[in-house]
TrEMBL record:
Domain of life: Bacteria
Source organism: Sulfurimonas hongkongensis
Annotated InterPro entries: UTP_pyrophosphatase-like, YgjP-like_metallopeptidase
Signal peptide: none
Name of the featured protein: YgjP-like metallopeptidase domain-containing protein
Residue ranges of every copy of the YgjP-like metallopeptidase domain listed in the record: 23-214
Length: 226
């Protein structure tokens, strides 16, 4: 087996040549790396194959780019409502003050400042959105909690306690509203049945598009920040 880097137009391709392969394979990794595996070294064959698959390759690369977590510069920027802002912006005043008052500006302490900022901002913004939609939907919840979570944007248990991920503040506002309506709908349906999705769609039109958009994106992680 032999691996080499080849070029096709503006694309960089990792070519893996293996004589025992019966078919040729093209894949795009989560890091947006294009890998081509063939049993042939023929440039004519390889270029012809890439030409036929070019449209598919570019589509996959675009998808990876769109799904890649947004990166920001720690201490200088903050990700809020799907946009990157300077920490000098008014909405980031709490974060800016916390960073300025750090005695030991280690990465761990800096990340803690960001976590605290999202938690405090979440209590204010998300509470208003939950109250807004609970009033429109005529639904009452027992308690609203905020917590940083790694695997879900929110949850609602059978006791009527709704928990929202503080990292929701990194999503666009329409995506946040979808999650709010989604969790409130669980007060009526503790499942993801057709009736549940119909209820969500009643109060949040175009819910399928937004839900798909959220699912295709990775949970924004502070570990991805630079």
């Amino acid at each position: 087996m032999h691996t080499s880097e080849i070029s096709f137009k503006d694309l960089s391709i990792t070519h893996v040549h293996k004589k025992t392969l019966k078919n040729s394979y093209i894949s795009v990794t989560s890091e947006a790396k294009v890998i081509l595996k063939t049993s042939s070294k023929s440039k004519i064959y390889i270029n012809d194959l890439l030409r036929k698959k070019e449209s598919w390759i570019r589509k996959q690369l675009l998808k990876q780019k769109q799904n890649r977590p947004i990166e920001i510069n720690l201490e200088d920027e903050v990700l809020l409502f799907g946009e990157v802002y300077s920490v000098d912006t008014k909405d980031a005043e709490i974060l800016r003050n916390s960073l300025c008052n750090l005695r030991k500006p280690t990465r761990e302490n800096i990340l803690r400042c960001y976590d605290n900022f999202y938690k405090e901002h979440a209590k204010s913004y998300l509470t208003k959105r939950v109250e807004h939609y609970s009033s429109i939907m005529n639904l009452k919840y027992q308690e609203l909690k905020f917590k940083k979570m790694k695997s879900r944007w929110g949850s609602c248990n059978s006791l009527g306690v709704i928990t929202l991920n503080t990292n929701l503040l990194k999503l666009r506002k329409e995506q946040i509203d979808y999650v709010v309506v989604h969790e409130l709908s669980h007060l009526v349906h503790m499942n993801h049945s057709k009736a549940f999705h119909a209820l969500v769609e009643t109060y949040f039109t175009d819910s399928l598009r937004v839900r798909k958009d959220i699912r295709e994106r990775r949970l924004y992680s502070m570990d991805a920040l630079k």
